[in-house]
Amino acid sequence: MSGAAAEVEEPVARRYEIKRRLGKGAYGIVWKATERRTGASVAVKKIFDAFRNRTDAQRTFREILFLQEFGGHPNIIQLLNVIRAQNDKDIYLVFESMETDLHAVIKKGNLLKDIHKCYILYQLLKATKFIHSGNVIHRDQKPSNILLDRDCFVKLCDFGLARSLGQIEKDEGNPALTEYVATRWYRAPEILLASKCYTKGVDMWSIGCILGEMLLGKPLFPGTSTVNQIEQILRVIPPPSTEGKKGSLCGCVRVSLSLPRSDGTGRWSHPEFPSLAVKKLVRSCITAPSLPPLLKENRRLPQESCQFVSWDALWTLKIFCCASC
């Protein structure tokens, strides 16, 4: 038995032939495998001691629950099977297999052309609009959670931090609620500043950061700490006004107003942003995630084809997505 197969329990190994390890983290390990009966390529994820405490148990439960509900969407990863480990501690999740993720593609350099970036963003907006329609926010959108195949087809994955907005309102007294969320570089300011009243706009902020990273080839706001992350953001965009206390950032505005100010023009003039529409998309995702209700009427969507999706069409779709934020 190979080293990778030796890490998988016998009942799982009988059903899935383990090919190679794809990755390992603090919470588990993922392998590429083949289902022996059908020959289908799958990804097997083993979550270590999935129920060791309440937080980890909730994360595992939410990932399974939300993927079972949302997995029918073409741009959300499909959960194929859930297998309980023999030790009653670990759990195996079996997913459809994808070839790579957006983080790996960006890291390799100039693989993505403008048309590919349009198509990836279009699919990501579709997936986000779908989960938002169920009053759920993902809270952890980042390049490594956007899976791709060779045709640039997108699957959004890792719903362990996803939450129902209704549940967040019930848990707003929990001080650990916002500290646990998302990779720092893609966090919205209201999460960084521990606001208890964030909205679907936090996902739109993450999408703006992802788009900026696709265009620049590097993270838009690579903060080294929470404070440094806020400082980097405020070097590029103007801080909220005092009137913003009544808006979506709530009490955290008082903190941001005390940080160094900028005219907010720094990075929007970057030469690698190919058009005005792109600048509008990036800027609007991270500075105006909640748009007026009137924009709900703008429901014209771009055609679902890489050939026909343009930056201007994506601007329309972004407005449509944000109208319910």
Automatic annotation (TrEMBL):
Q: Which GO terms describe its molecular function?
A: ATP binding; chromatin binding; MAP kinase activity
State if Nucleotide-binding is listed as a keyword. yes
Please state which protein family the record places this protein in.
Belongs to the protein kinase superfamily. CMGC Ser/Thr protein kinase family. MAP kinase subfamily.
Q: Please name the SUPFAM superfamilies in this protein's record.
A: Protein kinase-like (PK-like)
| Protein's name according to its UniProt entry | mitogen-activated protein kinase
Tell me its EC number(s), please: 2.7.11.24
Pfam short name (any one): Pkinase
GO CC, sorted alphabetically, is: autophagosome; cell-cell junction; centriole; ciliary basal body; Golgi apparatus; nucleus
Q: Protein kinase domain spans which residues? A: 16-301
Q: Which reaction does it catalyse?
A: L-threonyl-[protein] + ATP = O-phospho-L-threonyl-[protein] + ADP + H(+); L-seryl-[protein] + ATP = O-phospho-L-seryl-[protein] + ADP + H(+)
Q: Per its UniProt record, what PANTHER family does this chain match?
A: MITOGEN-ACTIVATED PROTEIN KINASE
Locate the residues binding ATP: K46
Q: Which InterPro entries match?
A: Kinase-like_dom_sf (IPR011009), MAP_kinase_CS (IPR003527), MAPK (IPR050117), Prot_kinase_dom (IPR000719), Protein_kinase_ATP_BS (IPR017441)
Identify the keywords attached in UniProt to this record, alphabetized.
Answer: ATP-binding, Kinase, Nucleotide-binding, Serine/threonine-protein kinase, Transferase
| NADP recorded as keyword | no
Which Gene Ontology BP annotations are present?
DNA damage response; dopamine uptake; endoplasmic reticulum organization; negative regulation of cell migration; positive regulation of cell population proliferation; positive regulation of telomere maintenance; positive regulation of transcription by RNA polymerase II; protein localization to ciliary transition zone
> Could you list the residue ranges that cross the membrane?
none
